[in-house]
């Protein structure tokens, strides 16, 4: 049996081991076509790498390199800006008072001292004797605030001189708002807009890129916890909070 | 070293194929296509199926070209890929191949080797192609490629017993067919 099996195996092996057949012409084009996409795919791979590298570098630049924002081509320190804002607010207040004193009659013996107090109490003390003397001497025009149309509130003067009936009527409309703006400007504004010589609106301080991103995010995201929040220290920019709806991370200040 | 063109050796061609050069791949294909189609044809039911196997096999050859270290013959390496590819085409016959009723009372057939020598290769090829897929694969692997039953079992996923059974049946069928061809050729019944 073994002999016979080997015989039949041998017959087929000898005859067919080296058997050759010419394939159809269409086989090679099919192979080339099937291999083409593989080659194209490979050629794209380096570009994905380059794109990923660029994204990583740009992200690293944004998050880790500290930035300072220049205003009008020069750097402003916070102290200088605050001083400038304070000077500016007093100048405006004095002008306003002078204007009012010219336009009102002496009978209206009401002085807008209260407003001065809200800005700077020292300044109020400086002014008070002046108004006192002018009031008692009656030789000069007293500094009198004008309340042109309506009186809404009556506020006691900061100077406790009852004899002169020194009192202040605060106009709740224009003057109060104006002074409040001044106070806010002195307290919060990082710079005074010298070119426009007007009042800057109170807003968040932007000291670095984190602050800038915070400001932009605040415009878009109205939630209490923003989608992303940064510290706005001068030293560095760090993420302090992330709010992705389900996931909330917030560093306590 | 075999010269494919007047200035390219097989080693050069392999190197260029590894670099993905399309022209070199085409030259390599034309160098081995006929031989490899001969291999695939033994495992296939017809020419079309054999060409499908050849196409798939050559794509694998080019994709795995980097794995060829030059340890053995390159032709042997390509041939193994073609055989494996051809077997994958017949995975679906695996259940059929598992049937193992060996020693099923097959009749002993006596084939005269000298007479068989006169049979044309293409006639023998036809006989193999007419075998059921399971028989055909095992007979090809054992008798022509020289694999052991253990290797066949590992390669095809059938047991060694099933491999032996398939081989035995394939041999019996082929013996009968060869004898019939001899009878037809020489006009006598043996």
Tell me about this structure.
The complex is a heterodimer of chains A (253) and B (190). Chain A has 253 residues and is mainly alpha-helical. Chain A has a domain at 78-188. Chain A has helices spanning 2-16, 27-64, 78-103, 114-119, 121-137, 174-188, 209-220; strands spanning 153-156, 167-170, 228-230, 239-243, 248-250. Chain A is rod-shaped. Chain B folds into 2 domains: 1-89, Rna Polymerase Sigma Factor, Chain: A (Orthogonal Bundle), CATH 1.10.1740; 93-190, Arc Repressor Mutant, subunit A, CATH 1.10.10. Chain B has 10 helices and 2 strands. In chain B, 36% of the residues are buried.
Summarize the structure.
Chain A is mainly alpha-helical and 253 residues long.
- Helix and strand run of chain B: EEHHHHHHHHHH
Q: Per CATH, what is the topology of the largest domain in chain B? A: Arc Repressor Mutant, subunit A
Greatest interface and its participating residue counts: A-B, 29 and 43 residues
Please state the overall shape of chain A, judged from the principal axes of the Cα atoms.
rod-shaped
Query: So how many helices of chain B?
Result: 10
Low-confidence stretches of chain A: 104-139, 162-171, 189-198
CATH architecture of the largest domain in chain B: Orthogonal Bundle
| Order of strands across the main sheet of chain A | 3-4-5
What's the number of helices of chain A?
7
State the major sheet of chain B.
2 strands, antiparallel
Radius of gyration of chain A, whole Å: 41 Å
Number of strands of chain A: 5
Find the structural class of chain A using helix and strand composition: mainly alpha
Total strand segments of chain B: 2
H-E string of chain A: HHHHHEEHHEEE
Helix content of chain A: 40-55%
Distance between the termini of chain B: 48 Å
Mean of residue pLDDT of chain A?
A: 64
Class by helix and strand content of chain B? mainly alpha
User: What oligomeric arrangement do these chains adopt?
Assistant: heterodimer
**Number of domains as seen in the coordinates of chain B:** 2
